[in-house]
Amino acid sequence: MDQLIKTYTKHLRLPYIHQNLSFHLEQARLENQSYEEFLLNLFQYEVELRQQNGVNTRIRAAKFPYLKHLEELEVAALPLEAQKHYQTLKSLEFIEKKQNVILAGNPGTGKSHTVIGLGIKACQAGYHVYFAHVPTLIIELKEAKNERVLQRLKKKFDKYHLVILDELGYISFDKEGAELLFNFISTRCEKASTMFTTNLPFSRWNEIFHDPIITAAMVDRITHQSYVINMNGTSYRLQQSKKFLENHES
């Protein structure tokens, strides 16, 4: 009978129950559980497994370069603006409101850790997220244009509740790249959230796009009803390295 039940759970795609039925049957007999208690426990564990598998799938699909959780972030070491908005960003309400977030400041102040941590938290909350370095995204957009599948690529991005664009400004790009990125971002504005990290203030974005009209339009689009957070400050990575050395020496 146990084997027959396992066969049915396999057909019904209930992997937790399929793998752990014998254990739960034994527990039910030892604890004299009612039928309702037995079934409730089985279904609860099955649902929890599916939810965790869903989280893992969304995190893999997001293509984060590495995993950094908000729990690992030392908030007190972040620039003051980031500390001020941390709880609001952590609530993820900006995703529900389809707002953008721009973290702008010098390298090493915790921008990437912050956006990756928020991205992972969004995956855990059931949102679909995608992470991309801006130079890599532009290459992808150019290839899609050359292969005449640009609209298909844009539709793919429509399913993401949050797109994280990292390292805007580290590498400048040509006019075609600027126009493709502008169009990509414009289609998401007020429809879904986008997070940006950049090492340049808006006054220097013309160095990236090499076109004052596109630059002005880009800044106007992404900052409308958005969180613009000044991330200039002491290097977060340097502070972490010092603490590691101090703890190691002690």
Count of separate structural domains: 2
The number of strands is 5
From the N-terminal CA to the C-terminal CA, the straight-line distance is 61 Å
- Please work out how many helical segments DSSP would assign: 12
Structure report:
GO terms for molecular function: ATP binding. InterPro entries: AAA+_ATPase, DNAC/IstB-like, IstB, IstB_ATP-bd, P-loop_NTPase. It holds the Pfam family IstB_IS21. The chain is of the alpha/beta class and 250 residues long. Helix content is 60%, strand content 10%. Strands 2-3-4-1-5 form a 5-stranded parallel sheet. Helix 9 links the parallel strand 3 and strand 4. Helix 1 runs antiparallel to helix 2 and helix 7 crosses helix 8. The protein is elongated. The relative contact order is 0.13.
Keywords:
Rossmann fold; elongated; 250 residues; 12 helices; 2 domains
Note the topology:
Elements: H1 2-11, H2 15-31, H3 35-62, H4 80-90, H5 93-96, E1 101-104, H6 111-124, E2 129-133, H7 134-146, H8 150-158, E3 162-168, H9 175-188, E4 193-198, H10 206-209, H11 212-223, E5 227-230, H12 236-249
Helix pairs in contact: 1-2, 2-3, 3-6, 7-8, 7-9, 9-11
The gist of it:
With 250 residues, the chain is of the alpha/beta class.
